Amino acid sequence: MDHTDAANSEFPLYPRELSWLSFNGRVLQEAADERNPPIERLRFLGIYSNNMDEFFRVRVADVKRRILLKKYQQSEQEDAEELMQEIQQRVLQLGQRFNAIYLDIQLELRKHNIELIDNFKLTELQSGWVRSYFRDEVLKHISPMILSGDEVSLPKALEDNTTYLMVEMTGNGKPEYAIVQVPTNELSRFIELPLHLNTRKKNGHYRRQILLLDDVIVHCIADLFAGFFEFDHIQAYSLKLTRDAEYNISDTLDQSLLDKMSKGIRQRLKSEPVRLVYDAAMPEQMLKVLSKQLGTSSTDSLIPGSRYRNFKDFISFPNIGHQSTEFPPMPPLKSPDFEQYATSFDAIRAGDILLHYPYHNFGYFTEWVRQASFDPKVTHIKMTMYRVAKHSRVIHSLLDAVRNGKKVTVVVELKARFDEENNINWARKMTEAGIQVVFGLTTLKIHSKLCLISRMEKGKLMHYGHIGTGNFNEKTARIYTDMSLFTCHQEITAEVGQVFEFIEYSYRPYQFNHLIVSPTWSRPRLMQLIQREIDFAVSGRKAEIFLKVNNLVDQQIVDLLYRASQAGVKIRMIIRGMCSLVPGLPGKSQNIRVISVLDRFLEHSRIYVFHNGGETDVYLSSADWMTRNIDQRVEVGVPIYDVRLKQQVLDTLDIQWRDNVKARIIDAKQSNAYVKRGNKRSIRSQQQIYEYLARQQGQLINTETE
């Protein structure tokens, strides 16, 4: 785990859990932002909900363990309990804001002829259609859990982050209770009612109406239980349980890591609950029965919410209206560096190539691997796999490469949180096909984004490498901002080869002169780079650090940044998520400014810039500045040596720093105030970066600008 403990630091440290909630508050700001199209605002609510699920599964679960574990001293236990109370208070505040935004978005959607309705608003004709739909499409996927007696153990039976309905049936006798799972794995959550049944019109057109699957079941709940139970009244309310995402995996030597991880996933479904979210309208007696069945304790988070659970499904909310209700498209840009050559290898051999996702097409990477799969000169392909798409063209090309006699090695990270099952499935398929699958080090996650292709050219083995900030995932490459460096710099590619060797043979000695490699080599290198700027400042020379990461919570690094500020180093940071450093404090961090940018794409690239006495060093990396990334994972940062590409990275960072539309100031309270525009022209950095790259490469674009 990361350790950011203010008690062990001479400098103030903002609690990482509260900083994370501040980040998710920025996501909620995007949902509230009326400059965003209404469908996109609704999807931001889905992103917020998905983030909150992970927050409870990981961050809150950790705080809960700190409260429960006996080995912690009393003072630390009290700190954890105080933190838990603060978390619960802020979560409730954000939840209230969430509900208000959802109502506002519903009103906005109505203006666009789209209406979200519940079962209480159904006309008689619509009700008949819904009952038929329930009988024909839904009923076969439902098997209620009856709570009378001791047959059902609810804590074991409920799956993590799944939408359920708690049902109460009352009559002359004792109330009966049941749990019904909403089958969103089998059916769409969003059901559009047939147009001819919609009676409300606007401007001469039928309003498009959507009913949630939850409401279909609630509307027909009596039909589900009729004939099995006698009742005069029946009601149902939603709930969702969130469990601890940590593992409880045996270290027995006779069990393969693959089997252990499969077992770990099963154990997660039965692990400790850390949150119960329920419909606030649920009657008190029903809630008491539910709490008793679950055995919730004082450290569990019982959170009342709105009518619906699992709002994360709204990430995929369908646009059934006009295209203006979504963001305008940004067609992926072509890369002249690739386009002007016959093969990807010719292009990379001509000079380093840098791609910016999602502005550039991820297809250049998949095409490079596809070409390697049949190129007679290619002998070996090595790749790390952290998160890949469920239908991965990259892996299909690797399977083709094996069939073509290439040697293929894939390092699979089985502990990629929440992607374990997908990775296990791919690992089995690749192993069966003859790919050498390496599971790496059991104590370290392999988080680096590496691909190394060896090619025999004129009797000599040449190596082509990829080092990036993002995963080899076709889906996320369209929504995450990342950078990929393609190079045949033989010293760099040799060091990439050493990283693969380290993963298999960690006991051997290695030396890295170009790459920043975690663990072991990363912390001293980063400390050295920061200290060098401190030395420049102390000697009266210009000293600057420009950092872009997702999270900054490593205490040792944060403390050194404070000292750098005290020495006079000017520090700018763009941090998407958690930031433990408190900027702008007189005498401590007055030379540090921090902003956070949230917009249509998820900022994901990590970039480190050090002024270095005027000979600026620029690194791309897979690593955030967190203890886990520096000391407990295999991460790789790569220097950008090409002058043109280095300037390109610096220009994009500068554009983002000048954002005055989607940038927020990270201050001592992390209150998420927007950067003030004043009388300056509007700069929405993601749009501006797209246009900058298009201009640089001579491509015409036709998109709406802010």
Automatic annotation (TrEMBL):
<dbReference type="Pfam" id="PF02503">
    <property type="entry name" value="PP_kinase"/>
</dbReference>
<dbReference type="GO" id="GO:0005524">
    <property type="term" value="F:ATP binding"/>
</dbReference>
<feature type="domain" description="Polyphosphate kinase middle">
    <location>
        <begin position="126"/>
        <end position="317"/>
    </location>
</feature>
<dbReference type="InterPro" id="IPR003414">
    <property type="entry name" value="PP_kinase"/>
</dbReference>
<keyword id="KW-0479">Metal-binding</keyword>
<dbReference type="InterPro" id="IPR024953">
    <property type="entry name" value="PP_kinase_middle"/>
</dbReference>
<keyword id="KW-0067">ATP-binding</keyword>
<dbReference type="Pfam" id="PF13089">
    <property type="entry name" value="PP_kinase_N"/>
</dbReference>
<keyword id="KW-0460">Magnesium</keyword>
<comment type="similarity">
    <text>Belongs to the polyphosphate kinase 1 (PPK1) family.</text>
</comment>
<feature type="binding site">
    <location>
        <position position="576"/>
    </location>
    <ligand>
        <name>ATP</name>
    </ligand>
</feature>
<feature type="binding site">
    <location>
        <position position="480"/>
    </location>
    <ligand>
        <name>ATP</name>
    </ligand>
</feature>
<keyword id="KW-0597">Phosphoprotein</keyword>
<feature type="active site" description="Phosphohistidine intermediate">
    <location>
        <position position="447"/>
    </location>
</feature>
<dbReference type="InterPro" id="IPR041108">
    <property type="entry name" value="PP_kinase_C_1"/>
</dbReference>
<feature type="domain" description="Polyphosphate kinase C-terminal">
    <location>
        <begin position="344"/>
        <end position="507"/>
    </location>
</feature>
<feature type="binding site">
    <location>
        <position position="604"/>
    </location>
    <ligand>
        <name>ATP</name>
    </ligand>
</feature>
<feature type="binding site">
    <location>
        <position position="387"/>
    </location>
    <ligand>
        <name>Mg(2+)</name>
    </ligand>
</feature>
<dbReference type="GO" id="GO:0006799">
    <property type="term" value="P:polyphosphate biosynthetic process"/>
</dbReference>
<feature type="domain" description="Polyphosphate kinase C-terminal">
    <location>
        <begin position="515"/>
        <end position="686"/>
    </location>
</feature>
<dbReference type="InterPro" id="IPR025200">
    <property type="entry name" value="PPK_C_dom2"/>
</dbReference>
<dbReference type="GO" id="GO:0008976">
    <property type="term" value="F:polyphosphate kinase activity"/>
</dbReference>
<dbReference type="Pfam" id="PF13090">
    <property type="entry name" value="PP_kinase_C"/>
</dbReference>
<feature type="binding site">
    <location>
        <position position="51"/>
    </location>
    <ligand>
        <name>ATP</name>
    </ligand>
</feature>
<feature type="domain" description="Polyphosphate kinase N-terminal">
    <location>
        <begin position="15"/>
        <end position="116"/>
    </location>
</feature>
<dbReference type="Pfam" id="PF17941">
    <property type="entry name" value="PP_kinase_C_1"/>
</dbReference>
<comment type="function">
    <text>Catalyzes the reversible transfer of the terminal phosphate of ATP to form a long-chain polyphosphate (polyP).</text>
</comment>
<dbReference type="GO" id="GO:0046872">
    <property type="term" value="F:metal ion binding"/>
</dbReference>
<dbReference type="InterPro" id="IPR036830">
    <property type="entry name" value="PP_kinase_middle_dom_sf"/>
</dbReference>
<keyword id="KW-0175">Coiled coil</keyword>
<keyword id="KW-0418">Kinase</keyword>
<protein>
    <recommendedName>
        <fullName>Polyphosphate kinase</fullName>
        <ecNumber>2.7.4.1</ecNumber>
    </recommendedName>
</protein>
<dbReference type="InterPro" id="IPR025198">
    <property type="entry name" value="PPK_N_dom"/>
</dbReference>
<keyword id="KW-0547">Nucleotide-binding</keyword>
<dbReference type="InterPro" id="IPR036832">
    <property type="entry name" value="PPK_N_dom_sf"/>
</dbReference>
<keyword id="KW-0808">Transferase</keyword>
<feature type="binding site">
    <location>
        <position position="417"/>
    </location>
    <ligand>
        <name>Mg(2+)</name>
    </ligand>
</feature>
<dbReference type="GO" id="GO:0009358">
    <property type="term" value="C:polyphosphate kinase complex"/>
</dbReference>
<feature type="coiled-coil region">
    <location>
        <begin position="70"/>
        <end position="97"/>
    </location>
</feature>
